[in-house]
């Protein structure tokens, strides 16, 4: 089950300068971390913490929160105290909110230094970030490029995005600050890919990947997988967010599946399920969905299969650590690594599978 080497075997990951977001290293060869963002009102401390925990349980390594005003900033200290994962404060324009977020113990701030006014303000934010060793994420979006850059290129372009990033980076480097990570996002996949590639040629700062306004669960997942997949397959990307117009817990779930399918992340359960065909005599799709959900919290690596027939199931899913294959007449098979271990009543198979998968995952934790 561990024999695949993943996409890194084909194209090595780009060497980047590591930064630390709380206990999570980003870049410098660290595993690619998964990010997501809360949708709650940040002033609702209990609600925000509940959502942060749900996102962490779904696989988020780092969670970002909007900090739009002083009230939101005032809630951060308590949120930091209760969070199970490092947090990023998302700040636009107001350097006082950045200072408040740093003061509250946030583990990273997202802020474009060229947008907060005078050099003096940048200096103050950098000083506070440096004291706490907190990185700054520069976030460039194609839709909000500086007017002069758009005017120069005629419209938003990949080159313009990199130019914008370079400008913001310069503000921090002028202050001697290099705890930086950068995102270059567009809703256009080609532009996102091109911008990240151009950036990667010029800078060694770690990259946070994402496609903006990717869409609802299905279209957003596919679009993100296409765009981020191209970059990841070229060794680019140190952390990522799959942005979805859906329940936020879907974001880390999709991101994890993406990373696992490229062999860039290990741990947790991976489900193989056959598409079913005329050989299948049970309604298997809801079973596969339930199994995936029931195993969603496992930390140890385990590959699980739910297959629609006894004839081909165990063989087709021989790479799975444990699987079930449904047969006719209300019976089916439990198999491990392609070998049949037990014939059971069909209604008992799901529980037997979950139990065995949990045991294996816990052994490997
Ligand atoms: Fe069809 Fe069986 Fe293959 Fe599933 S495992 S697709 S039911 S042949």
From TrEMBL:
Binds 1 [4Fe-4S] cluster. GO terms for biological process: isopentenyl diphosphate biosynthetic process, methylerythritol 4-phosphate pathway; terpenoid biosynthetic process. InterPro entries: Dihydropteroate_synth-like_sf (IPR011005), IspG_bac (IPR016425), IspG_bac-typ (IPR004588), IspG_C (IPR058579), IspG_TIM (IPR058578), NO2/SO3_Rdtase_4Fe4S_sf (IPR045854). Its cofactor is [4Fe-4S] cluster. Pfam families: GcpE (PF04551), GcpE_C (PF26540). Residues 271-357 form the IspG C-terminal domain. Its EC number is 1.17.7.3. Keywords: 4Fe-4S, Iron, Iron-sulfur, Isoprene biosynthesis, Metal-binding, Oxidoreductase. GO terms for molecular function: 4 iron, 4 sulfur cluster binding; 4-hydroxy-3-methylbut-2-en-1-yl diphosphate synthase activity (ferredoxin); 4-hydroxy-3-methylbut-2-enyl-diphosphate synthase activity (flavodoxin); iron ion binding. Residues 16-255 form the IspG TIM-barrel domain. [4Fe-4S] cluster binds at residues 274, 277, 309, 316. Residues 1-22 are annotated as: Disordered. It comes from the Bacteria. It catalyses: (2E)-4-hydroxy-3-methylbut-2-enyl diphosphate + oxidized [flavodoxin] + H2O + 2 H(+) = 2-C-methyl-D-erythritol 2,4-cyclic diphosphate + reduced [flavodoxin]. Pathway: Isoprenoid biosynthesis; isopentenyl diphosphate biosynthesis via DXP pathway; isopentenyl diphosphate from 1-deoxy-D-xylulose 5-phosphate: step 5/6. Belongs to the IspG family. HAMAP family: IspG. Converts 2C-methyl-D-erythritol 2,4-cyclodiphosphate (ME-2,4cPP) into 1-hydroxy-2-methyl-2-(E)-butenyl 4-diphosphate. This is 4-hydroxy-3-methylbut-2-en-1-yl diphosphate synthase (flavodoxin).
């Amino acid at each position: 089950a561990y024999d695949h080497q993943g996409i890194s075997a084909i194209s090595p990951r780009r060497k980047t300068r590591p930064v630390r977001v709380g206990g999570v290293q980003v870049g410098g060869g660290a595993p690619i971390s998964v990010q997501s963002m809360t949708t709650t009102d940040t002033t609702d401390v209990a609600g925000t913490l509940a959502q942060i925990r749900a996102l962490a349980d779904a696989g988020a390594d780092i969670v970002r929160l909007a900090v739009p005003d002083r009230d939101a900033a005032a809630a951060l200290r308590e949120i930091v105290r209760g969070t199970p994962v490092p947090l990023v404060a998302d700040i636009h324009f107001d350097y006082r909110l950045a200072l408040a977020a740093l003061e509250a113990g946030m583990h990273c701030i997202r802020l474009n230094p060229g947008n907060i006014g005078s050099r003096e303000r940048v200096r103050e934010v950098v000083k506070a970030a440096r004291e706490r060793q907190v990185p700054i994420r520069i976030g460039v979006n194609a839709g909000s490029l500086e007017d002069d850059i758009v005017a120069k290129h005629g419209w938003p372009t990949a080159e313009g995005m990199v130019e914008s990033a370079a400008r913001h980076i310069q503000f921090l480097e002028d202050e001697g600050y290099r705890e930086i990570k950068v995102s270059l996002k567009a809703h256009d996949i080609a532009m996102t890919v091109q911008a990240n590639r151009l950036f990667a040629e010029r800078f060694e700062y770690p990259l946070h990947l994402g496609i903006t306004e990717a869409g609802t669960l299905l279209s957003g997942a596919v679009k993100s997988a296409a765009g981020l997949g191209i970059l990841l397959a070229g060794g680019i990307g140190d952390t990522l967010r799959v942005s979805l117009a859906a329940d936020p817990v879907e974001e880390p779930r999709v991101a994890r599946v993406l990373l696992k399918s490229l062999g860039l992340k290990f741990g947790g359960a991976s489900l193989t399920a056959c598409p079913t065909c005329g050989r299948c005599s049970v309604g298997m799709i809801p079973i596969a969905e339930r199994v995936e959900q029931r195993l969603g919290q496992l930390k140890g690596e385990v590959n699980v299969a739910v297959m629609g027939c006894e004839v081909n199931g165990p063989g087709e899913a021989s790479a799975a650590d444990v699987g079930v294959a449904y047969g006719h007449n209300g019976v089916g098979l439990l198999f491990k690594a392609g070998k049949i271990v037990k014939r059971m009543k069909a209604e008992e198979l799901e529980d037997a599978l979950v139990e065995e998968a949990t045991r294996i995952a816990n052994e490997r934790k």
